[in-house]
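Summary of Year 1 activities. Much of the first year was spent building the evaluation harness for sequence design. The harness presents a backbone, in tokenized form, and records the residue chosen at every position. We chose the following record to illustrate the format because it has been used consistently in internal testing since the harness was completed.
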């Protein structure tokens, strides 16, 4: 990531937290604007229009979140945001969410 940041001339390096179960991820969102990347969420453009920094992104497993997990995120203030109609692999969804967040937050 450091080499990619230097190559692109980026101004910041994102923090990547270790893999966590849903309850740990829910608890970590308290320290910023918490967004859950989820196919059932509102378009990410709309969610980010209301966002502020610091921003915390979480994405679920490739099989998707269980309804109870999704409800737990919702109950603790996380906003669900969709990356569009296509299903993305876990690692691709994280990169796409981070990229869109960086671009859209910088534009506001």
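For this record, the design step produced the sequence shown next.
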């Amino acid at each position: 990531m450091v080499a990619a940041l230097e190559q692109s001339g980026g101004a910041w390096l994102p923090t990547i937290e270790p893999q966590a179960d849903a309850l740990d991820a829910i608890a970590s969102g308290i320290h910023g604007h918490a967004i859950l990347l989820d196919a059932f969420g509102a378009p990410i453009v709309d969610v980010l229009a209301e966002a502020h920094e610091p921003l915390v992104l979480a994405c679920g497993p490739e099989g998707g979140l269980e309804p109870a997990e999704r409800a737990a995120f919702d109950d603790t203030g996380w906003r669900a945001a969709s990356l569009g109609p296509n299903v993305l692999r876990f690692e691709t969804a994280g990169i796409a969410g981070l990229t869109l967040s960086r671009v859209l937050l910088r534009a506001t």
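The chain has one domain: 23-107. Quantitative recovery figures across the full test set are reported in Table 2.
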